[in-house]
């Protein structure tokens, strides 16, 4: 599933053609994706102007001029394709395995006043598009319990200390808890923990003092998380499995991976004497170096 940097890359790719543009027509080619489309979805989109295109965690948010917000999620295999001339166009975002261009999986087609056509393609149909009034968005089931964004100042050692205090859960699982930090995913948690020298298996609560304050190691983790996310966004995301940018170019942060998907390879901190290991935590692969991550 695309993680925050990939979704942000897609947002930045779509923004120039969608933001400020009027949706001249909307074609919905099936009744549902992961969820049914909102009733009258095409009619509710047609004639509306996209006031802004934002992101919250791994969700894309298109604010319309009537106060409604279109909530979009890429799921496992969803992608957007932009075309200015001709039917092909380029896929927005970067993915390790090429995103589908098969028209049989083109489920939503938006014709915009900017001169572009934006097509949503999703072979596995785990993505979705829903609508909510802007004033009710914070209470929407998808957003009501989301934690802080990992890109802003709200992510702090004090915030994590409060969330981690007394937790016996593994550190990796705690960081993947979307009610604590919204948008962090498997790839970037593995990378951040390696850079911070922290074991994904240690109890999250061990990074908090008895008085409830952040330890030095937790203080160090916060800027590392921001650093990893910022670098991944600047690199256009990681081209893994199904992710691709709106420009059609591949993201290249995967070439900077220290541990993710590098099982058996030399640790980039320790050298040849220690190898990256892979374990399974909560059904997900975790990559780490047992020598330098404690």
Automatic annotation (TrEMBL):
Its cofactor is Zn(2+). Keywords: DNA damage, DNA repair, DNA-binding, Glycosidase, Hydrolase, Lyase, Metal-binding, Multifunctional enzyme, Zinc, Zinc-finger. Residues 2-127 form the Formamidopyrimidine-DNA glycosylase catalytic domain. One of its GO terms (molecular function) is damaged DNA binding. The keyword Lyase applies. The keyword Isomerase does not apply. Monomer. Belongs to the FPG family. This is Formamidopyrimidine-DNA glycosylase. It comes from Phreatobacter cathodiphilus. The lineage of its organism: Bacteria, Pseudomonadati, Pseudomonadota, Alphaproteobacteria, Hyphomicrobiales.
């Amino acid at each position: 599933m695309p993680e925050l940097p990939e979704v942000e890359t897609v947002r930045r790719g779509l923004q120039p053609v969608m933001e400020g543009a009027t949706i001249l027509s909307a074609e919905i080619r099936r009744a549902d994706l992961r969820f049914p489309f909102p009733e009258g979805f095409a009619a509710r989109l047609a004639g509306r102007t996209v006031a802004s295109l934002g992101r919250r965690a791994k969700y894309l948010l298109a604010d319309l001029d009537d106060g409604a917000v279109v909530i979009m999620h890429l799921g496992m295999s969803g992608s957007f394709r932009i075309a200015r001339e001709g039917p092909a166009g380029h896929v927005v975002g970067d993915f390790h395995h090429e995103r589908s261009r098969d028209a049989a999986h083109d489920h939503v087609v938006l014709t915009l006043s900017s001169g572009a056509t934006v097509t949503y393609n999703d072979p596995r149909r785990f993505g979705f598009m829903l609508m909510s009034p802007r004033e009710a968005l914070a209470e929407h089931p998808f957003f009501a319990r989301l934690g802080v964004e990992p890109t802003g100042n709200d992510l702090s050692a004090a915030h994590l200390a409060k969330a981690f205090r007394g937790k016996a859960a593994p550190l990796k699982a705690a960081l993947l808890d979307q009610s604590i930090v919204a948008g962090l995913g498997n790839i970037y948690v593995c990378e951040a923990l390696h850079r911070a020298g922290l074991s994904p298996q240690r109890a999250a609560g061990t990074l908090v003092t008895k008085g409830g304050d952040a330890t030095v190691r937790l203080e160090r983790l916060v800027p590392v998380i921001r650093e990893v996310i910022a670098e991944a966004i600047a690199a256009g995301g990681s081209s893994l499995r199904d992710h691709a940018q709106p420009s059609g170019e591949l993201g290249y942060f995967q070439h900077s991976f220290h541990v993710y998907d590098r099982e058996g390879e030399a640790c980039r901190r320790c050298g040849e004497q220690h190898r990256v290991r892979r374990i399974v935590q909560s059904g997900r692969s975790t990559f780490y170096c047992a020598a330098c991550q404690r």
